[in-house]
Amino acid sequence: MSSTPRVLVSLVAAIAVALSAPADAAGASKKAHAAPRAASSTGAKRSVSKAASRKAVHATRSRRSLPAIAIPVVDPGAVAHDAAAIAREFDGWLDEVDRSGGVAGLAAAVVKDDRVLLERGIGVADWSTGEPVTTETVFRLASLSKAFAAALTGLLVEEGRLHWDTKVADALPSFTLADVEDTQRLTVQDILSHRVGLPHNTYDRLLEQDEPYELLVDRLKDVPMACPVGACYGYQNIAFSMIGDVVFAATGDFYYHQVEKRIFHPLGMTGATYGRDALESSKSWARPHHHAGTGWASFVPSEAYYRVAPAAGVNASVRDIEQWLIAQMGGRPDVLSPALLETLHKPLVDTDRELRGSPWKRGRLKEAQYALGWRIYDYAGETLIFHAGAVQGYRAMIAFLPRYRFGAVMLWNCESGLPAGLMPMLFDRYLGLPEVNWAGIDRDDDATDVGSGGGSGGG
Questions:
Q1: Which Pfam families match (predicted)?
Q2: 223 closest CA partner among 208, 245, 206, 241
């Protein structure tokens, strides 16, 4: 790379770091779960000290004084012709992550068209025993589970058992929201695209405190609406999981049975399951870990988000998710038809807050929207279909470029932000964009280092 482009890349990265400081500092104090911080059940406003207020004002002014980041645009002529070579480079980055000790364990795969270019595990499934992560080690997928709920619903729509505009109140007569008209308006499609109209992450905290899902759904009627149904985006886990109740009403069968029968089994996802008992019954499964001194310590998986299976209940290995990724990129029309995929990936609501997320998002995303169980990004001019997930002790990311049928998945068993930057590094290399070391890993080259990359919260 010539000296002039390197200076420009360094300038862009420096601006990204400066912009990320206030947001990342605030995010560091949050407990990451299956989605961003839950809405308070009491609605009480948090008091803020005068000193904190002055600091926030100063930070805001500082951000406004910085120039806007110039997001590059993909040149189709610069897109890699040898995807396998890009996968080999990604493999080298995994070596660096492994040597750094920055994760307890991680499994990753890179896929082009219907071919798996790379599948690999690094680190350990259980620090206490030293059991290694393999490509068949089962992880929790957290919010990557949402795409399975959307796909199952689509399959039932194709059969005529449901419709995207099926009213939730018709399927679940006891369901109510605070507003009667909104109750009658809410559709299946609204649930799957987070357009229920509730505040972000309503009642997630209570779910984490072991409140039963059924009770929390009943209490949605007590929550003031943030907007009319369909009018705004508000990420949900409780409300999203009502799709499981709708599926039961439509089929007379349990939600997870339907996913197993219609998705897991046809795609050959032999290690994919639902629930904590199934996770712990897997031949090899990744224990969740937290930092302990200079290493890691495993702990018992939390049960909370397993109670909302459509939102966060899937367990799977990276080998399983390779097949899911191939299907989502159009490689299994016998299971997921082209027409269904087009519907699942069609943007339905803007999610502008995503543009202010981690440094790589500020440096690459022009637009951010939500479809049905998937996030849709304009990544430097190219469509990127994406989702991230997080529950206590687990993280997951999946993304692909539909135009090029190139994608990747990463699953790891600790609350480290380090791997999150690898995904945009991979897509930058494939698309021929300026190199930025979004993950902050040690590398032999001198690509710009912007720190630890940062995750995507839970969703």
A1: Beta-lactamase (PF00144)
A2: 206
